[in-house]
Amino acid sequence: MRLSQLLCRGLWSVALLSVLHGSAALAAGETPIVVGTRITLTSKVLGEERPLMIHLPGGYEAAPTERYPVLYVLDAETHFVHVAGMVEFLARTRHLPEMIVVGVPNTTDRDRDLTPPFSKTERIDDGRLLSEVAPKAGHADTFLRFFTEELAPAVEARYRTQPYRILVGHSFGGLFAMHVLTHKPESFNAYVAISPSIQWNSSELLRTAPEAFARLAAPGRALYLYEDAEEAPNVARLRTLTQELRRRKPANLTWRYDELRGQDDHASIPHIGAYEGLRFLFNGWKVPEKLQMAGDLARLEAHYAGLSRRVGYPVVPQERLFNGVGYHHLKGKRLPQAIAAFERNVSLHPDSANAHDSLADALEAAGRLQEALTHRERAVSLAREHQDPDLPHYQKHADELRARLAAQPAP
């Protein structure tokens, strides 16, 4: 067996620290672009301080009742920035839900944390004992306890989360993801394993994973496997594994395996693999364009009901989707349909200043000025409470409507 090479970290680490800590000097008038924040969690399981990188959705503070799935990224010193940006982009284009991204960087020993137990007689390609080459390796189960007993509970206590966890890992991180799904599948709902090092311990996963997946008791698990087509030995292993999965047809596991062909390699495929993995996990999340344009609220609600059954938690339609439907009807002067869409949006997102302000647009167009003012004022109140940067915008709308009402002749 061969040990996977460690990831190149230098340039990524410098760039990440610069973004997170604003270490570069800024000229007057310049504002840093912040990808996330860094916090520290004291782990009793590991007996050490663990740094974490946290990315929250852009509208997190302005939407105090919204809850989000959590995506955990291993090797975060390399992968946090590009995965967080990818999640933000795909959520903005409505291909997946907004998510909290938790990056888990390596600290003292990556081999220790990410690799499963192994045989004392296991040797690497040059004949040396694995226990001599990597004496601290093989403690993935302890690292998993850190996740399930400390990290995930801490994240779910501190942030507003949905009961949906995703684990993304590359190389040894992919091996860790496969090990968790095989032994403690309830730990996460979905797993993305990119170029997983399944040669570990004489390819033990090839022997144990198919049977474990076939008897999965936890319902609704999902697995995405991705490998560089040039990684010939590992491609052969993954093809053997997936052939067995096709034969067994595990009832509680939705899975897919893809191979990358092109000029990328083991070090560069994590970005593409994470993108494809997320698209697979949330395939069908985006509302079809024709359905959006039709503006049929019943069919839109049915779409989200289907998504809710699939992921196992109530999926609330995105605020900007129903807002778009409302303005589509408003532009076409279909006022009853516009008001219905905006009213539904307010019922789904009662603490959104934008939802109230948008409903007021339709009510004002319908001549229902006093009702419109109620929602204008509610938008101002919510924006002030949540320190919404659009407060001046909502205040202007409310002031203009008050002036319009004041100018009306007395009845």
Automatic annotation (TrEMBL):
Signal peptide: 1-27
Presence of the UniProt keyword Heme in the record: no
InterPro entries per UniProt: AB_hydrolase_fold (IPR029058), Esterase-like (IPR000801), Siderophore_Hydrolase_D (IPR052558), TPR-like_helical_dom_sf (IPR011990), TPR_rpt (IPR019734)
Domain of life of the organism encoding this protein: Bacteria
GO molecular function, one term: hydrolase activity, acting on ester bonds
Keywords, alphabetical: Hydrolase, Signal, TPR repeat
Keyword Hydrolase found: yes
PROSITE patterns attached to this UniProt entry: TPR
Pfam families the UniProt entry points to: Esterase
Family as reported in the entry's similarity comment: Belongs to the esterase D family.
Source organism per UniProt: Corallococcus coralloides (strain ATCC 25202 / DSM 2259 / NBRC 100086 / M2)
TPR repeat coordinates: 319-352
Gene that encodes it: besA
Protein name: Ferri-bacillibactin esterase BesA
PANTHER family for the chain: SIDEROPHORE TRIACETYLFUSARININE C ESTERASE, SIDEROPHORE-DEGRADING ESTERASE (EUROFUNG)
